[in-house]
Amino acid sequence: MNIFTWNINGIRARKEALAAWLDSRKPDIVVLEEIKAQVSEIPETIRDFAGYRKFWNGSTFKKGYSGVGLLVRDGSLDEFTCEPPPFDIENRTLVLHAPQFTLIGTYVPRGDGEERYAVKLRYLADLKAFIAELLTEGREVILLGDINVALRDIDVHRSQNKPGAIGLRPEERAAIEAHLGLGLLDIVRELNPDKKDLFTWWPNWKFARERNLGWRIDCIYLTPALARKVSGVSVDLDEKSSDHAPVSVKLSL
Question: What's the rounded mean pLDDT across residues 237-248?
Fold first, then answer.
């Protein structure tokens, strides 16, 4: 089973690229972050794309802002449900419950400005409490999405590793560490412990992507029992239509 996360940075702007990507990659599950569209605004080419069940948490909080989607390929899961969780704010989260696992797709707030930074920390705390409850129930968990935190110095290019920068602050890194403290594993880093310049997002500076001046903020965290079933991870560097690259994990279930 191939499971992807991709911050698409506007599904209407990326409709042709997304359709071509779905056709070529054929993910079993993909979480799309920052769709920037209400459900009624999802492009027809995506809404009617064959072979997938589609779930949307559209940008009702603010027009053209946030929003997530989750697509499940026909035949990949026998039974499941998908809906926003109780703690969701600003159309940032979808949760899929299947017999094998619970998958949480998230678009964590960036946190610019002190008010928005407080929102980010509260969201991460609520997300952690939700995961802790699932683990108490004995569920296997996959958390994936645009986390908007570079956890380690190795996860951000040295040119942008500036103290106090949003995405690098001690409090937000500690919040992600608390998620991992529940027992989740950062599977991309686990399988690439010393790999430098392993990035998933690049600023909109001239030639930043070509020079790989990026951050690793799109992540997949999962419980140890699921981690033992992982046969590979990847960052799809060939897909360049968004400022984020798709990230995937392959599970042998």
Answer: 98
Is 157 known to be catalytic? Answer: no
Q: Is 204 annotated as a binding residue?
A: no
pLDDT of residue 163: 87
Residues 91, 174: Cα–Cα separation, whole Å:
24
Residue 148 labelled as part of a binding site? yes
Q: Is 244 annotated as a binding residue?
A: yes
Domain boundary assignment for the chain: 2-251
Q: What percent of the chain has pLDDT over 70?
A: 100
Q: What is the C-alpha separation between 208 and 201, in angstroms, rounded?
A: 10
52 is catalytic: no
Return d(Cα 138, Cα 123) in angstroms, integer: 23
107 has catalytic annotation: yes
CATH superfamily of 2-251: Endonuclease/exonuclease/phosphatase (3.60.10.10)
